Amino acid sequence: TQQAPAVSVKTEPKQYTGAGMTRLVMSIAAAQGNVQDAAKFAAEELNDPSVSMAINTAANSGGVLIPQNLHSEVIELLRDRTIVRKLGARSIPLPNGNMALPRLAGGATASYTGEGKDAKTSEAR
User: Fold this and answer.
1) Helix ranges, 45-113 (H)
2) Residue 67: helix, strand or coil by DSSP?
3) Mean pLDDT by 10 residues, the chain (125 residues)
4) Would you kindly state where each structural domain of the chain is located, as residue ranges?
5) Which of 44, 54, 96, 113 is 20 to 30 A from residue 25's alpha carbon, by CA?
């Protein structure tokens, strides 16, 4: 019997945090600030269509500083470097970016009572 030829599967190495943002900056620097050339550089030279698309999308939507699909990389790298974190601020996880805080529905009220009379009780709402 004859054996089938071996098939090798090549897996992509796991990217380090900030790799996408690094490629974005490299592309813009190589193109000397020209957005169209930067997108072309990312697609052809770096073989990274996601960065190319991020550059094009950012340019067409008004030129945001950090494209939406790369902002989480940058935020995670900078989070521990903030002064507030160094002072010991507590971090609260926000599922889906939302947080519910209980609050009072009404404000405080005040009134006068006659001298020597019992004060009225009230309840917070």
Assistant:
1) 49-60, 68-79, 83-86
2) coil
3) 69 73 89 90 89 76 61 77 84 75 75 81 68
4) 19-91
5) 96
Contact, 61 vs 68, CB < 8 A? Answer: no
The phi and psi torsions of 52 (rounded to 5 degrees) equal: -60, -45
Q: How far is CA 5 from the centre of its chain?
A: 46
Return the pLDDT at 19.
Answer: 83
Distance CA 48, CA 33 (A): 18
Long-range contacts formed by 40-48: CB under 8 A, 24+ apart: 48/20, 48/23
Residue 75 CA to residue 66 CA, distance in Å, equals: 10
SS3 95: helix
Specify the residue for token string 């947080």: 99
